[in-house]
Structures are given as C-alpha cells and as structure tokens.
Amino acid sequence: MAICNGKPSKNGVHPFVKKDPKPTRARLVSLLDPLGRKRYSEVERFLATVNGATSGLFYYGTNWGWAVRYLLGTKNTLCTLHLLPNLFEATVAMGRDMEEPLKKAVLPSEVKRRITRGKIQNGTRLVRMPIKNDADFNGFQLLIKLKADTLRSKKG
Asked: Which of 27, 46, 60, 149 pairs with 14 at a CA distance of 20 to 30 A?
C-alpha cells in the first residue's frame, strides 16, 4: 500500500498531481489497466451521446490532480472521470436541484448506496462511482441521464 496525498492508497501515487506540465488525455488513459481502458472507452462513447456534453482536462488540485471533466453547456459539470493507476472511477456532483428527481428515480440499490455515502462539499453531494463492470456502467448511465435531464429542465 502506497501513500497518496498523505493518505494510504492501494492504487499508488497519482502521477499528475502537479498543475504543470499538463498531461495529455492519452497519458491519463495510459495509467489504466486493460479493463479500465475498456470501461473508459465505453463511458466516453456513452457521454458522446449526451446532447450538449463537452469534455476537457481539468486540474483538481493536489488531492486529485488532472481528470477528464464533462460539462453540459458552459458551466454545469455533468461528471468527472478519474484515471488513476489501477482505478477508473467517475464522480457525479449532485446539487440540491437533484434531490426531487433522485427521490422519484428508480435506481439500483448499489447506486442508491453510493449516493447515500457521497461526501457533501459546499452543499453538493459528490457521488464516487468506480466503473468496473456492466452493473456499475449501467448505474452510471442512469445517474448521468437523470442529471442531464434535470439540468436541461432548469433552463426551460
């Protein structure tokens, strides 16, 4: 077990915690194991179908370093993809505007558990979702569709 940002981490130290030089997306993808790369490709293909979604690399400070952030429009974060050695996961930020839609949504129990366990930061629940199998991927898709629909309905 290595120490990552002062905390024990079975995944080792994130190699891109410094802001400069900015890594390429290909360098981030190269950190993943073969299954992580496969899942990342599936997630990228799915997010490409979300109307209005754009992506780019974003620096999250020394705790998370560089990650792939998806926006809906120009300022609404849809999700963040963390590409780390031996770990591929997404963080979906759920603001107060998501409380009602989440209550009405039919979600798998594992997704509900992840939402409940999400850390609250500045009034927003950060839902971490490792994407290792089809069930994880399906849960992620449901959450992203719900969030995208909620963000679009706010504009109207």
From this structure: 46
Residue 39 one-letter amino acid: R
State the Cα torsion 69-59-123-90 to the nearest 10°.
Answer: 40
- Cα gap 102→140, rounded to integer Å: 13
Alpha helices per DSSP H over the chain: 25-29, 34-48, 61-64, 99-104, 109-117, 134-155
- Of the two residues 87 and 143, the one the predictor is more confident about is 143
C-alpha separations of 150 from 31, 78, 98, 143 in Å: 33, 11, 7, 11
Would you state the structure tokens that stand for residue 142, as one six-digit string? 């449901």
Query: How high is the mean pLDDT of the chain?
Result: 87
0.90 surpassed by pTM: no
Q: Which residues contact 83 (CB under 8 A, 6 or more apart)?
A: 28, 29, 31, 32, 36, 40, 67, 68
Angle at the Cα of 128 from the Cα atoms of 31 and 76, rounded to 5 degrees: 95
With tokens 């952030």, the residue in question is: 69
Three-state DSSP class for 4? strand
- First-to-last C-alpha distance (Å) of the chain: 49
Name residue 124's amino acid. Answer: T
